[in-house]
Amino acid sequence: MTQRLILHIGHPKTGTTTLQKTLQGSRTALINAGILHPDTGHHHNHRALIPYLTSEASALQQLDSSPSEVLKISSKKWNAVKEEVSTLNPNTIILSSESFFRDLGDDEFRMLGSNLKSLASKIVIAAYLREPASLTLSKAQQNIKRKPIFTLPPKAYYRSTLELYKNSGIGSMKVRIFDRRALEDGDIVKDFFAQHIPHFDPERLSRRKDDNTSFSAEAMSLLQEVQRKERSCPRDNAKHAIKKADRELHGFARPRMHDQIRHAIQARCTDLGWLKDEFDLEFPNIDTTAMSHSEADRLCDALDTVEDMCVVDTDRKAALWNAVCKNQGPIRRLLRKIRN
């Protein structure tokens, strides 16, 4: 039996895609060192295993597939993982997906633990946590690409999941703050190996980067308005057109939250003290007494547009929209002027 299985659960927006792509692109070097990052198909993560590993209801609900079909596919992939483990007999297995960062029931945790322990004698749960305001902004960027609204994480976002894992008995936990200043050389890949596989030199890895790129606050605002049909632009092309123009237009900068909103999102979190007590973790530069919970709730409940959350340069936003329209061709520009 394999000595150890590392279950990397994210959480979301903590460099997981970069880590996963690097692990997947370095399979040969890792296998030669007794480390297995299983290949489950065209994805670089192991989300496809979750329906079988847990039988959790929401994991079985996927578009264009029935729950029974999803479970059948997931079971097939898990059996392939077990076969690969049996063939290679690695010392360490790494399973990684942000989708493992979820609130499971007791039965689902028991099933997850039973399945994982069938592969390895020791389980380590690895988690990286992003500061609440930074996490909220990053998730808003991601969500705004698909829908016109953004939602805030729950007030006890960290505790609700981590406490369940801690009490599940699946394995030990290693929880880290995702902060470039605290990571090994400011790098998620190097930090993961330093924490979990220190005998392997990460310079031997084939590094891969996350293809996801940030939008400016101006681009986020335009995309939201297109999604809300407040501006006319073919929705299928909007994301690509705005992204392209955003990168080409002078003055690009990563979005910055209004200070008051940043303080409000931090102040509404109810589990920061729990993180300190349980894991001795503290996010830097957070003053939990800077704002009352009621004031924080009032400000957060009022969030509706990107402008409510972020600093938006109105002149650059106008110039960006002009650039998007210019790239759409004369006929589409004329139709857009008529509609607007």
Radius of gyration: 22 Å
Order of adjacent strands in the largest pleated sheet: 2-3-1-4-5
**Count of discrete alpha- or pi-helical segments spanning 4 or more residues:** 17
Order of helices and strands: EHHEHHHEHEHHEHHHHHHHHH
Using the 3D structure, state the CATH architecture of the largest domain: 3-Layer(aba) Sandwich
What ranges have pLDDT less than 50 throughout 5 or more consecutive residues? none
List the domain count as a whole number.
Answer: 2
Give an overview in words.
- This protein has 340 residues and is of the alpha/beta class.
- The chain has 2 domains: 2-135 and 152-204, Rossmann fold (3-Layer(aba) Sandwich); 217-254 and 310-339, no CATH class.
- The chain contains 17 helices and 5 strands.
- It has helices spanning 16-25, 27-32, 50-54, 57-60, 67-88, 106-117, 132-144, 157-168, 188-196, 217-227, 235-248, 259-267, 272-279, 293-301, 306-309, 314-327, 330-339, and strands at 2-8, 35-36, 92-96, 120-129, 172-177.
- It has a 5-stranded parallel β-sheet.
- α10 runs antiparallel to α11 (235-248), α10 crosses α16 and α11 (235-248) crosses α16.
Set down the secondary structure blueprint:
Blueprint: E1 2-8, H1 16-25, H2 27-32, E2 35-36, H3 50-54, H4 57-60, H5 67-88, E3 92-96, H6 106-117, E4 120-129, H7 132-144, H8 157-168, E5 172-177, H9 188-196, H10 217-227, H11 235-248, H12 259-267, H13 272-279, H14 293-301, H15 306-309, H16 314-327, H17 330-339
Parallel strand pairs: 1-3, 1-4, 2-3, 4-5
Helix pairs in contact: 7-12, 10-11, 10-16, 11-16, 12-14
